[in-house]
Amino acid sequence: MKPLKIRFCGFGGQGIILSAITLGTALVTKKGYYAVQTQSYGSEARGGQCQAELIVADEEIKSPSSDEKDILVAMSQSALDRYIGDLKKGGILIIDSALVTEIPDVDAEIIQVPATETAVALGNRIAANMVLLGFVQQATGIISKDDLLSAVEDLVKPQFMDLNTRAIEAGIELAADVSLEVTV
Amino acid sequence: MASDGSNPQGRVLSGVHFMLGNYATAEGALAGGCDFFAGYPITPANEISERMSHRLPEVGGTFIQGEDELFSIYAVTGASLAGAKAMTATASAGFNHFQEGIGYAVAVEAPCVIVDVQRCRGENFATQADVMQMRWGTDGDYEIIVLAPSSIQELFDYTARAFNLAEEYRTPVIVMSETTISLMRERLDVPSADEIAVVNRRYTDLSPGEYKPFAAPEYGVPDFAPLGKGYNTIYSINPHDEEGSIDWDPDVYERMYDRLTGKIAKHRDVICQPRSYAVDDADIVLIAYGSEVRPALDAVEMAREDGIAAGLLKLDAVWPVPEEQIAAAMSKAKAVIAVEMNIGKYANEIERISAGRVPVHRCTKNRGIIHSPEEIYRSIKEVWK
Amino acid sequence: MSLKLYPRRESVRKDGLPHFFCPGCGCGQVLNFFLRACDELGMKTEDMTCIGGVGCAARIPIYLSTDALHGIHGRTMPWATGIKMTRPDMPVVVFAGDGDALSIGGNHFIHAARRNVDVTVIVVNNLNFAMTGGQVAPTTPLTATTMTTPYGSSEPPFDLCKMAETSGATYVSRWTTAHGIQAIRAIKTAMQHTGFSVVEIISQCPTHYGRYALGSGSPEKSVEWIKEQSIPRTRAEKMDPEETALNFVIGEFVNTQRPVFWGSTIYDGAEE
Question: Are A and B close enough to touch, i.e. 3+ CB pairs under 8 angstroms?
Fold first, then answer.
C-alpha cells in the first residue's frame, strides 16, 4: 500500500506538532501501523511558522521525507500559502476557517472547519488542534475515536483531558456529514 | 540489564512505541545496561540527556550535567574504569571537544558509548559530515567502532549493541546519529528484556600478584580488575607495557598499538554486519549508511520498476570499514554509487576498495536536507545511461 | 613524632623508582607527606584510586601502589567525579599541579568544588609550568620572571584557596613544603573529610622557578624563600590585605559540611 502523507501547519503554540504526534501515536501504538513524524519550525519559541509531517503505512517506511502530501491541515494563512504547493493534485485541504480566509485556487477537496471558533466556544482556543484531529478522525476513518482518545490520554497531562475530549468530540460532530476517501 | 546482571523494573520498556529518535537512543542505552550518563546541553542532542536524567535515577544509575563536553567524556571514562557502563551524547560542535577524551579511552581501553547527533555548523540541519572525524578525530594511531543507525528502531538496537561491542573490545563505540532521525518520531518495537543480549564487564580471576592489566591474547582484549582492590593498575595514556608500566621502549610501543588496532581491525567481519538489498543481480550497487539508506532503498525500488537492476548495500558499522563485504557487493556490479549527506567522504573509502576495478560514482548532498528518493534515482539513471 | 625515612615503603611501586623528579623538587616531599598521612590514618593506598593529570605533581600517583589514572592534562576532576559516582565506597585522591588544577582544569576545579564531590585534591603549587620548562602559570607571582615572562609577569595570580572556598569546597587549607608536619595533618583531615577537600602545598621548583624567578637553582634557597613568604592565616587576618598580597597565607581556611554530590538530579529513591 502507498504510504499516506499528512502535513499539519500553522504557527508555533497551536499544537501543530502535537497533532501529528497524537495521530501517529494512535496509528502506531493502537492500530499497529508504521509511521514517521518529522517537523520544522522557526527559531522562535512561540509564534513562528511551524509544520509537522506524518507518513503512515502498513509496512516499514523508507524515505522519511516526501514531496507530495495527500492531506494538508492548515491553521494559519501564512503557513497555508507556504505549504500549499506540496499538496498533491486532487488531495485534501482542511483549513481552520477562522484563521485561513483566502482560499487558494487549487485542485483539491477543500474543507473549511470552524475549529478555532468551536474551541473558543468550548472555553479555550488552544484546543482547536484537537477539534481538527476529531474532524480528521471522523472524516477519514483512519483511526477509531477510542484509539484517538486513548493516544491523547497517553500524551497530554490529565488536567487537559476533559477539554481535549470535548474538543475531539466537537470535531467529530463537525465531520458528521463528511466522508473523505483515505486508505493506509 | 545493569552491569551487575540485574534487571531493575523499568529498564527495558517492552512494547510498541511511537518514539522520538533521541528518546530511543536513551532507551537503547538503558536496555544495553547503561548506568552512568554525563552530558552538556546542545541541540539537537538535548532529548537524550533529558530522557537519561529522568530514567537513569529510576534504575539506580547516575546522571550528571557537566560543565562542558570535556567533563562529559572524562567523567564517562572515569566511571567506565570504575565499572560503570557509561555513555555521553552531543552534537557535532560538542563532538569536537570529545576528541581528546576519546584518545584516552582508546589508550586505556575504557569501554564507553558516545553518541554524536550530527548537525550542520551551528544549525540543526541534516548532515553526515562527521563521518571522518569519528574515525580520525583524536591524536595517535587507533581503530574505532562507529555504528550508523538509519531509523528509530536502529537507534535503539544499535545503541544497545554499542554497549556490548564496547565491552567485548574494550573500546569507545560511537553511535553516529543524525538530525534527521534524532528529531523524528517513528515506530519502535522494544523486545522483552530477556530477548536483549547484554555483554557484561569481564573481570579477572587472577590474584593481584598474577594479574597483568594489559596482557591479552594476540589481537585480544585484557580482563579488567576492580579499582581499589590491590591490583594497582596505572591507566595512563602514555605507552605502557602489559604490566601497565609507562614504557617508551619502541618495541613496547609497537606491540601495544598492534594489539589496540588489531583487536578491532582483525574482527571487522564480526563487528560489521552490512545488509544487502537486491545486490546479487545488480548492475548498479548503491552503498549508503545512516538515514541515507532510506531514500536509497526507495530509489532502488523505483529503478527496479523501470527495469534497471539496482541494489543497495546498507552499512551498519562504517568503522572499521567492512572491506570484504564492500568488495563482494561490488564484485559483479558495473558501477557503484556512494550515497551520503556530505561533500563525499566515505566515498573515498569505497573508491579505495574498488581500486579502479568498478567505477565509483558519488551521489552526495550537502545542503542540510536528506536526499529525496527522486534525487538518488536521478543519479542511478545518469550512471545507467 | 618519630620520623621514619620511608614510611609505608610497601606503598611505593617496586618498579616505580627511580622517580623522575629533579633533585630538590618538592613533589617527592608531597609524596612523603601523603604516605605519612595515610600511615597515621591506617589507610592503604591499594584501597584507593589516585589520579594525576599531566605535570610534575601528576606523576606522584604512578609511584604509588595504587590504581591510578594518568596522562591527560586538566581533566582530573571529571575523572574523579565519574569514579566516585560509580564507587562511592572507595577513597579518590587527586594530585594536581597548579597548571592542571587552575589553568587548563580551572573550570572543572570550580565545578567539582561547587558540587562538593567527595574527593580529596592535593594541589602542588610550584608557581610555574615546570615539566614543560618553566613557563608562566596562573599562580606565578606578579612581576616574577619565567621562561615566557622574560621581563616579569604582568598577570596577577590566582589564590587557589580563595577560589576553592568561593566555589564551595568544604575543606580548604594551604601549607608549604617547609611546613611538613602541618601539611601532613592537613592531608589527614582532608582524607577524613566528607566532601570536596583541598590541600594546597606551595612547593619549590629549583630547576625552573628557582633559577629564573629567584635567581638560584639551590633547593634550600627556594624553600627558605617560601618559608620567608609564608604568613599564618591568623596573623594575615590582622594585616592590611595589600601588605600580604605577595605572601603565601598558610593555615586552614574552610572546614564545614554540606550535602555531597551524587548526581545532578534529586531522586527520592536514589541509591548511594
Answer: yes
Tell me which chain C residue has its CA closest to the CA of residue B234: C68
Residue with cell 509511521: A35
Mean pLDDT of C154-163: 96
Q: A37 and B184 in contact by Cβ < 8 A?
A: yes
Where does residue A169 rank: exposed (0-12), middle (13-18), buried (19+ CB within 10 A)? Answer: middle
Domains, in order of start, for chain C:
26-255 (3.40.50.970)
| Residue C160, all three cell numbers | 587557589
pLDDT value, residue C15: 82
pLDDT digits (tens, 9 = 90+) for B118-169: 999 877 899 999 999 999 999 999 999 999 999 999 999 999 999 999 999 9
Q: Report, as an integer, the average pLDDT of C13-27.
A: 91
- At A89-141, the pLDDT tens digits run 999 999 999 999 999 999 999 999 999 999 999 999 999 999 999 999 999 99
Q: What is the pLDDT of residue C5?
A: 56
Instruction: Identify which of B212, B223, B277, B203 has the alpha carbon closest to the alpha carbon of residue B247.
Output: B212
Show Cβ contacts of residue B310 under 8 Å, excluding neighbours closer than 6 positions.
B278, B282, B283, B284, B285, B286, B299, B300, B303, B304, B380
How close are the terminal C-alpha atoms of chain B, in Å? 53
Q: What is the DSSP string of B124-182?
A: -----TTHHHHHH-SSSS---EEE---SHHHHHHHHHHHHHHHHHHTSEEEEEEEHHHH
A35: β partners: A56
pLDDT over threshold 90, residue C100? yes
Distance CA A11, CA A7 (A): 13
Question: Cα–Cα distance between B103 and B87 in angstroms, integer?
Answer: 16
Would an 8 Å CB–CB cutoff place C73 in contact with chain B? no
Amino acid at B366: N
Give pLDDT tens digits for C187-209. Answer: 999 999 999 999 999 999 999 99
The CATH fold of domain B15-195: Rossmann fold (3.40.50)
Provide the ipTM: 0.94
CATH of A4-174, one of 3.40.630.30, 3.40.920.10, 1.10.287.3510, 3.50.50.60: 3.40.920.10
Question: Which amino acid would we find at residue A21?
Answer: I
Q: Cβ contacts (< 8 Å) between B18 and chain A: which residues? A: 21, 24-25, 27-29, 35, 37
Please tell me if the domain spanning B15-195 has the same topology as the one spanning B273-384.
yes
Name residues whose C-beta falls within 8 Å of residue B237's C-beta, 6 or more positions apart in sequence. B103, B104, B107, B108, C70, C71, C72
Can you give the residue ranges of every domain in chain B? 15-195, 273-384
| pLDDT band, very low/low/confident/very high, at A66 (cuts 50, 70, 90) | confident
Chain A contact partners (≥3 CB pairs within 8 A): B
Asked if A38 and B183 come within 8 Å (Cβ–Cβ), the reply is: yes
* pLDDT at residue number B134: 98
- In Å, how far is B187's CA from the nearest CA of chain A? 6
Nearest CA-CA partner of A52 in A77, A85, A81, A20: A20
Cβ–Cβ below 8 Å for B18 and A28 = yes
Q: Is the minimum CB–CB distance between B367 and chain A shorter than 8 Å?
A: no
Number of B–C residue contacts, CB under 8 Å: 144
**Contact state of B232 with C81 under an 8 Å Cβ cutoff:** no
| Count of helices and strands (H, E) across chain A | 6, 6
Per-residue pLDDT tens digits for B18-54: 999 999 999 999 999 999 999 999 999 999 999 999 9
CATH class of the domain at B273-384 = alpha beta
Q: Does the distance separating the beta carbons of B227 and C67 come in below 8 Å?
A: yes
